[in-house]
Amino acid sequence: MKFKRLLTSALAVIMSVSMLAGCGGTSDSAKKEETKATSEDTQVLNLSANYFGNNFDVQDMGWRWMMAACYSGLYRNVADESGEHFELEGAEKVDVSDDGTEYTFHLRKDAKWSDGEPVTAHDYEYGWKRLLNPEYAYGNAYGLYNVVGAKEYNTGEGTADDVQAYAEDDYTFKVKLLAEDPTFISKLVSTPLYPTREDLAEAAGDDWGKDWTLNVYNGPFCMTELVEDNKMVWTKNEYYWNKDNTKLDSINWFFVAEGSTAATMFENDEIDILQTTGDYSKKYKEKAAAGEIKMIAADYPGTTYLGYEFKDGGKSKLMKNQKIREALTYSIDREEMIETAFGQYKPAYGLIPPALSVGGESFRKSVEEPLLKPYEEYDGDSEKLQELFKEGLKELNMDTDLSKVTITFLSFDSTAEDATMREYLQQTWQQKLGITVELNAMNDYTLFAAEQEAGNYDVYQNYCACDNDDPYFLLETFYAHSLDMFAGCYNNPEFDAAIDKSKKATDDEGRLEAYKEAEQILIDDSAFIPVYYTTKEYFLKPWVKDFRWSSYGASMEFYITYIEGRNK
Q: Does a structural domain hold residue 478?
């Protein structure tokens, strides 16, 4: 599944095992580190997570925000006082041809895996070609389609030898693109394009990515302990090329399913950083304003939206009508919902969030949100919204008695937020439109996907996020050539033409105009319901220093974080 698709919570299914070879220490050392966590001299960071994940294959790592800190790629996304920018990481130099289609990466000779073996250009070549190998069906393979020969190999029409991403020698990695791509560097910080050791992956076979003890790491940390539904421990990677500037000795992740439990642990100094929402967010914002704790807030390149079943018009057969879709869209008071349900996030009146940019400028600063004006025209007026819905029923030659209308909302019930939003939408649509809304909440992703595939819904919940700084990857969700179920099989040739135009654009201005046109078409067509743009809020204890968050790659910048003054 592509990361940009519906994000799901996956709990670890791996039993407790002892320390991984190559990172040093034994299981007893982990206990010692935990004991020393209160010591001023020990650099230990304590965190919570509501899932650990069960996939340790970087080419298929949808939960990269966590595990990406144990790996590194050619570049790193860095957040500092000047904002976010990309810096060389696994490469120490890059040469780019005049036409922008050929990249030569000169790798660090001091970069090593956690077992002491060097990180070579062959590891990058293998990782990229493994991503494209049709045998593995990796969802993120499309991200390399601009590499010569990549799409052909991935679709079974070419071979791995045709892919122009290869090791010229041990420390020189060459890539040839079909066309210049101004977003190419941003793609290089995402985990699917990280290197992979061929000898280990091939020896592991079907166990690769499932058994974490088979992994090695080339980032600042390596995982040394995992206890199912309990605890994960990372230890400083002594073979990391920049280990002298990595200050943390270890990071303890505690599995905490409930937000209230995580908040209590934060209050009791059992964890050092808290990410939360709702009433807890409001509470800790007040504490941050009073100077008791620190707070980091930033936009995230993701949008929560609602989609429709376009193939058959949904379970009710009503979703083929645009006026009915408009009535559902215009009836949602996003500001009220965010205030009621979440305590954070930004109301969305488009698809592309503020975190995504074109030519270094936020897309949302350059382009007005297309849904805002039609939404304001209705201003939550129930009478006008019901009349709009009835017009749609008339066009379908159906009974206009709204009390006889029932629609089904399909959602993935993974968090308390999901439940709150689901109930809010049900109440809103029933009160403002006078219809009945049945809830179909799935707490298992396989069941959710099956219901969607079967068309047992009218409206569904989705979350779309980008792993690199390019609006294309959100817009591409609705591209008919893929007939993606996560767009409800939406199909509009005008939209497809705008997407094709964006792919042919040779400059930022052309891309911006094409993206603007594509997003406007989606809104004009009521292809989806934008709900909110994602933001991230982190609350930090005063002794946590230099913790930073970035939008792409290893989002949590642990490699520069340190502890100072824990006991003061």
A: yes
